Amino acid sequence: MDFISLAKRKSTVMAFVFQGQECAGYAWLTPINGNYAFPHFCFFKEVWGKTSHELGEMLLRYWFSWEDAKGPLLDVLIGVIPDFNVKAQHFVEDVGAVRLGMIPRFFRDRDGTRRDGAIYYWTQE
Which domains does the chain have, with CATH numbers? Predict the structure, then answer.
């Protein structure tokens, strides 16, 4: 599936972040199931570091601020990152994710190689 198809799904919620007038990146939740969702972050190289961390924290506050008459819509966000993507793992840890551990053979590379996935979560607290 290509990214445009994913972005157009009704179960995908896109968010774009700006630094001044310039788009600094985007993020999305997919799917939202009950009180949890799976976040994905993509920041442009020009804002990596302090700015991307601030934007990531802002997105998390935004998503956790969603409410209806019964209270918060999301209690938990869950992420699974390939074992080789150490930069992404450091990013989510820096923006407050808690690492639960590894899931063996969770991902399949383009060449068919199976890779482990590090699982993380954020909660309302």
Answer: 3-123 (3.40.630.30)
Query: pTM to 2 decimals?
Result: 0.89
Q: Is the pLDDT of residue 1 over 70?
A: no
User: What HEC string does the chain produce?
Assistant: CCHHHHHHCCCCEEEEEEECCEEEEEEEEEEEECCEEEEEEEECHHHCCHHHHHHHHHHHHHHHCCEECCEECCCEEEEEEECCCHHHHHHHHHCCCEEEEEEEEEEECCCCCEEEEEEEEEECC
